[in-house]
Write a structure and sequence with these properties.
40% helix, nine-stranded parallel beta sheet, globular, 265 residues
């Protein structure tokens, strides 16, 4: 009887501790800054908290400089991989098109990775045409897996096959839920920021994408530091993918911004 009571007490204690930890767990907010590499003003992004990921376009004038400095400062570096859009907008260097053979996709991605040192993950720049093509995404994901990287779907189309293929190939993956700044004014930023917090509260996490516009960086500098006191955790995408629960949380679906209002396709 005594053993039973001791065992029962231990079980109750463990359950109580788990409930307590669950109650105090803060929703995670993951911020990715896209389109870095072209403008000297992009270096203003270094004024943001180190948890903000820098997603850098390949073979741009500042790609290596920004990537190397970011890694030295302990910031997560990502490759912002250009992919074909339905509107045929120019992709810039090393873009992936839907008419490429798998070997060409592999070769182009490897060149892009070399131009962005220390990249630990990839997300798509534009890609409303490319990410909807299953065969193209399969070739891409297979190389991402070989390189030991993760993939974040920027979700520039509702027809995206990115996460479906990533899951099948076995690539750690996530999906953008909020575009912060496709309208560049403070009132819009505030509305998106509130949506961000609502999703994080409801689902336990939110993935946010912004861009290195001076207005965006000023807004983030002002508002990111207050997240902790508001009950949120600003989490690095790198730290997230080292956690045991990333699949259950980041693969969960949630209504996202209209893709037609994204800053690019």
């Amino acid at each position: 009887m005594r053993r039973f009571l001791i065992g029962f007490t231990i079980v109750i204690s463990v359950v109580s501790s788990l409930i307590s930890l669950s109650a105090v767990a803060k929703p995670n907010i993951i911020v990715i800054l896209d389109d870095l590499g072209y403008r000297p003003t992009d270096v203003a992004a270094f004024s943001l908290p180190k948890e903000v990921a820098f997603s850098i376009l390949p073979q741009t004038p500042l790609s290596k400089i920004i990537a190397q400095r970011a890694a030295q400062e302990g910031r997560p570096v990502m490759l912002h991989m250009p992919m074909q859009a339905t509107n045929q907008k120019s992709m810039g260097p090393l873009g992936l098109s839907t008419d490429m053979f798998p070997a060409a996709i592999t070769h182009t991605l490897r060149k892009a990775i070399k131009s962005v040192p220390n990249a630990i993950g990839v997300n798509n720049h534009m890609g409303s045409a490319f990410t909807g093509q299953e065969d193209s995404m399969k070739a891409l994901m297979e190389e991402i897996k070989r390189q030991g990287l993760f993939f974040v779907d920027s979700r520039t189309t509702v027809l995206t096959k990115a996460q479906e293929v990533a899951e099948r190939v076995g690539v750690p993956n996530a999906s953008r839920q909020i575009f912060l700044d496709h309208q560049r004014n403070p009132e819009f930023f505030k509305r998106q920021f509130e949506r961000m917090k609502n999703i994080a509260t409801d689902k336990g996490h939110v993935v946010v994408i912004g861009h290195p516009h001076p207005e965006t960086i000023d807004f983030l500098k002002q508002h990111l530091p207050s997240l902790e006191t508001e009950g949120f955790n600003l989490l690095s995408i790198a730290d997230y993918f080292t956690r045991d629960d990333q699949h259950d949380q980041l693969f969960a679906t949630y209504p996202t911004d209209s893709v037609t209002s994204s800053p690019n396709e």
